[in-house]
Amino acid sequence: MSSELPPQVQNQLAQLQQVQQQAQTLAMQKNQIESTLKETETALEELEQLSGDAVVYRTVGDMQIRTTKDDAIEKLKERNETLSLRLQSISRQEERISKRFNQLQEQVKQAMGTQGGYQAQ
């Protein structure tokens, strides 16, 4: 059926699919970051309940390294800040993608309406 569509409409449909895939990718990234952010916040809450001289280890690659409670808290806060910034960036990208999707969808609807009217004549 798509071979019956004008090239411009086929191009718009391809763009629409591409934008939809981008939106899905962003949504997955956002969910992953939100999950990691929640884990980081939970770890921070647990660390803050420990005594100052508690033995703390943090994961670096495949290794666990002994560290101080304060250092672990500092690292988690830095990670939390980085994740929050990344989450804001993805949210902005989602807004732009959503607008682009709606714009393309409207263009395709109009083109299909024109195309359908054209075929009926």
Automatic annotation (TrEMBL):
GO cellular component: cytoplasm; prefoldin complex
Coiled coil: 9-107
Signal peptide: none
The UniProt record lists the keyword Cytoplasm: yes
Keyword list, A-Z: Chaperone, Coiled coil, Cytoplasm
GO biological process: chaperone-mediated protein complex assembly; protein folding
NCBIfam families linked to this entry: gimC_beta
Family, similarity comment: Belongs to the prefoldin subunit beta family.
Assembly: Heterohexamer of two alpha and four beta subunits.
Physiological role: Molecular chaperone capable of stabilizing a range of proteins. Seems to fulfill an ATP-independent, HSP70-like function in archaeal de novo protein folding.
Descriptive protein name: Prefoldin subunit beta
Species for this entry: Methanohalophilus portucalensis FDF-1
Encoding gene per record: pfdB
